[in-house]
Amino acid sequence: MRSEKRPGDKVRGRWLTLCLVLLTSYFSLLTALAAQAPAVAQERAAYLAWLSSAAVSPYAAVARAPIGSGIRLGPPGADIPLDSIPAQHVTERDGRVTLEGGGRARPLTRGRAVRLGGYTLVTSGPPGRATLSVFGRPAAKRPPAYYPYDSAFAFTVRLEPAAQPRKVLLLALDGTEVEATEAGTVAFAVEGKTARLLVRRIPGDEDESDLEVYFQDATNKKETYPAGRFLTLLPLPNGRYVLDFNRARNPFCAYSSVYPCPAPWRGNAVPSAVRAGEQYAKQSEK
Amino acid sequence: MRCKKAWIAGRRSQRLALGLPLLTSYFSFLTPPPPAGPWRAVLDLAGGSLPFALELEQAKGRWRGRLCNGDRCQSLSAVRVVRDSVVLEMADYAAMIEAVARGDSLVGAYRNVGNRGPRVIPFRAAPGRWPAKPGSARLLGRWDATFFQDGRSSPRVFELRNGPAGLEGTILSNSGDYGHFWGQAKADSFALAHFDGSFVYLLTGRLTGDTLRGVFHAGLRSQTAWKAVRSTGKAHLKPPTEVTRADTTRPFQFAFPDLEGRMVSGRDPRFRDKVVLVDVFGTWCPTCHDAAPTLVRLWRKYHSRGLEIVGLAFEVTGDSGIDGRQVRRYRDKFGIQFPLLLAGINDTELAAEALPQLEGFTAFPTTIFLGRDGRVRRIHAGFYGPATGEQHAQLVQQFERKIEELLREQ
Fold this sequence. Notes:
The complex is a heterodimer.
Chain A (H helix, E strand, L loop, with lengths): L6 H28 L1 H18 L7 E6 L4 E4 L5 E2 L6 E6 L2 E6 L2 E5 L5 E3 L2 E6 L6 E5 L18 E4 L2 E2 L5 E5 L5 E14 L2 E11 L5 E7 L13 E4 L1 E2 L5 E4 L42
Parallel strand pairs in A: 2-3
Antiparallel strand pairs in A: 1-9, 2-4, 4-5, 5-6, 7-8, 8-9, 10-18, 11-13, 12-13, 13-14, 14-15, 15-16, 17-18
Chain B lengths: L7 H4 L25 E9 L2 E12 L2 E8 L2 E4 L2 E5 L2 E6 L4 E8 L2 E9 L4 E10 L13 E9 L2 E12 L2 E8 L2 E11 L2 E7 L4 E9 L2 E8 L3 E9 L14 E2 L8 E3 L5 E3 L9 E7 L4 H17 L4 E9 L4 H15 L5 E6 L2 H7 L3 E2 L6 E5 L5 E6 L8 H19 L2
Parallel strand pairs in B: 21-22, 22-23
Antiparallel strand pairs in B: 1-2, 1-9, 2-3, 3-4, 5-6, 6-7, 7-8, 8-9, 10-11, 10-17, 11-12, 12-13, 13-14, 14-15, 15-16, 16-17, 18-24, 19-20, 21-25, 25-26
């Protein structure tokens, strides 16, 4: 039998094409989100390796102090006593930090690790308010604990730009004071309700910056870190972002009391329990 | 302008013993061919693929390799090959690529230490060389660009040209340049990359009508939208002579050891009543290599009339043995007869500290013009190399005019 073209075919064909396009985009979205699970597993492995071995890992943090009018490092009785380190003095002048000791003066450039015997020193913070962090060997600590991956907590979102992208001084995940920029808000639906979170651009290493969300949710009381968790937006090629709560990370103050804790961003709360991402594994501290 | 390539020395101390936790291969029952030869490599950023090239070779049982952006290559710090896994150490051991063989390809990740966690970017490579894909004439030349981020805009300039390996270029900002970019062009689209083991930059764009539009990617996740129009010749960035200022109330002071370890100071008799060009440079800075032949020519042309030049090298390690060797090689390569001094390590902040009379020092190279009284008369940040054509010719003319003007003063 020969099929004949009827007037309705054209309309049906269009519907079919539209359905196909919609289905394809739906599935490609699903694939994009599904691809996140193994990526998240890899990121967690890399993060654990970094925590256990990096010279600047919070597991290796020994002390942290504002430089103020100067800090003495070294023998017992110093502001920060360090094993087998002769007396050293750290000062900040005109925004520049210098380490002096043993007839030698070394500049401490912000964000850059400098070795001192078995220790690593890093300075951070704005001029006039520099902070010194001292790291030793990474201590054996409990590895971070996570909820199992749950794709229900991964969203693709649109960043609605801030009306006024003003700058704000705040503490980043590592307790460092940074000048962040209001980048906008993201909205998504949890348990049938729309939640909206503030996004800020936080400057990072090597000219890079991240769009970050510091949020609280109903799990903070018992299961996750009380002050909240950080989450970085991942850009997609189409201009949208992946907001995957499975990537939520604790601020470093959750690992060591050496770090100051970033204050929660006012009102940045998900009104339900986000059982995804990092949990709070209490560390027993000496 | 500023070669943002530095920052490496300090990262040495963050050297990691990451181990090879992820390199257990599923393919160990196969014996893949050793990874010698050229590779077309890619870092998969969130918004696009960053192309670069790797060249690996085995000589006398030892592996070594190079990382290339087009025809600009640098040696890898170390290459380790164990069965089907490859570890490439780079950026003075501060970063690495770990990969395993999958069929005839390499798959793995680039890793670098960050202060808030590891910087990890997926990596893959296929055997062979990138084909040279030159850009169409419509893409080439100088573009006045504007970067947009969080409602703010800032100016940049793109210089796009065709080189032996295809489309290449650079990005200039008020505070410096982003190094040499190389990449691939297709019709009116392009992707240009700069990856040196430390900095991860990708510039993607497309020409629509008279306007270029695209995204500048830094690292895995940072993206900045931009738009550019063909340069009219009017200054889009701050002029290079207005970037850095100096204290001119007293003669410009410097005192650093030369390559033989003797202190050389601005007060030495050799500089007295002379016009002096102080060249702040580094052997690691490609733009400085572009500037060196011009300085050598100027020295030959004007030395007998009273011009002195002195180079202040800010090097990678801070170790005078290693840095001295690098600077001697640089001196011999360009036949430099004026003194080169070891002034410190290659960090704009530290260099600024070593030269406290300067304000707003950001660029390698920076040329400081001193009059016969030893005071600063002009500071030129950056240098347009011969590849910039007309810009280079103009710059040389400006340098000569200023030198002649200063020589005439008594």
